[in-house]
Structure formats: structure tokens, C-alpha cells
Amino acid sequence: MIRIVLPAHLRTLAKISGEVELEVNGPVTQRSLLDALEARYPMLQGTIRDHVTQQRRAFVRFFACQEDLSHESPDEVLPDAVVSGAEPFLVVGAIAGG
After folding, report:
1. What is the side-by-side order of every strand in the sheet holding 67-68?
2. Mind listing the domains of the chain with CATH numbers?
3. What is the mean pLDDT of each run of 10 residues along the chain (98 residues)?
4. 21: which of 5, 6, 42, 57 lies 20 to 30 Å off by Cα?
């Protein structure tokens, strides 16, 4: 079971409390993980990735195993610790400003 931690505003939108646990069939990549998340919570479509390009939104970052995975290929397999559920996949709202 893969664990996903979402920022508070997305948990509120999806009416989720705490972590999300998902099963992903096939290789576990950012793309397959987010596809499964959006299939289960359709109200999240377009909030993490652009509707058309499927590219990560500018102020959203992905972390796992203390690494920033935001600029990795969406089709690269995620770390084993995420796949096994030992570590969560974190979706983090980035902060900008001066």
C-alpha cells in the first residue's frame, strides 16, 4: 500500500483526513501514482498537475525518502521505500515570496 501525504488545502478539497493509502498496478511512478490518486479523488484533477499537459504545477513539489523528486521524470520508478509503504510520497505546496 502506497502512502501519500497531501497539503492541508488539498486534503480539505478532497475531504481527506490524514494520509491517503493507494494500490497502484504496475510500476509505481509519479505518473501512475497521481493517476490513481486523481481516479480515487476526481476533485483533485488539475490541482497537482495541469489538465492538458499533465505537468506538475509550478508551486507544487514532490518529495520522498528525504529527496526532492519534483524535477525527476514522471515515468521514473519511485524509491522502493515508497513502493513498499515504508516511506510516504509527499506532495508539498511550495512557498514563494520575498
Report:
1. 20-22, 2-5, 89-93, 60-64, 67-68
2. 2-93 (3.10.20.30)
3. 96 95 95 97 96 92 96 96 97 80
4. 57
